[in-house]
From TrEMBL:
It comes from Enterococcus italicus (strain DSM 15952 / CCUG 50447 / LMG 22039 / TP 1.5). This is ATP synthase epsilon chain. Gene3D superfamilies: ATP synthase delta/epsilon subunit, C-terminal domain, F0F1 ATP synthase delta/epsilon subunit, N-terminal. NCBIfam families: ATP_synt_epsi (TIGR01216), PRK00571.1-3 (NF001846). Its main location: membrane. It is a peripheral membrane protein. The keyword Transport applies. It is found in: Cell membrane. F-type ATPases have 2 components, CF(1) - the catalytic core - and CF(0) - the membrane proton channel. CF(1) has five subunits: alpha(3), beta(3), gamma(1), delta(1), epsilon(1). CF(0) has three main subunits: a, b and c. Keywords: ATP synthesis, Cell membrane, CF(1), Hydrogen ion transport, Hydrolase, Ion transport, Membrane, Transport. GO terms for cellular component: plasma membrane; proton-transporting ATP synthase complex. The gene is atpC. SUPFAM superfamilies: Epsilon subunit of F1F0-ATP synthase C-terminal domain, Epsilon subunit of F1F0-ATP synthase N-terminal domain. Pfam families: ATP-synt_DE, ATP-synt_DE_N. GO terms for molecular function: ATP binding; hydrolase activity; proton-transporting ATP synthase activity, rotational mechanism.
Amino acid sequence: MSQYLTVNVVTPNGLVYDHHASIVVAKTTDGELGILPNHIPVIAPLLIDEVKVGRKDDDGHVDWIAVNGGIMEVRDSVVSIVADSAERERDIDVSRAERAKIRAERMIEEAKQKDDVDELRRATVALHRAINRINVSKHL
């Protein structure tokens, strides 16, 4: 029986996160999912949201990762998250995220005026990503 989880977060740009943890909490399309060592195997689609990782090396240490969707696989006390993009709280450029939020809000208004459903959907996703990054950066 494993005493800890190994957590890996990977994007097309490479490895974003690799640590041992006592717990991982992520939001899936079916709701929030908490993973402890020796959890049953699971594959779940993730929402654009934060992933909370309770580090094994320090009970009070929590890492936060902004994940823009993706898939989480749990097997043999290994939590693997594959996402289009992901950033740790310490790596988020808050001013860039704020600018992205403003751009997305402007795109939403323009899409509503043009009644462009596809553009509205893309802009809404962009807004959600920007807000997620801003929220995760506040955990620092």
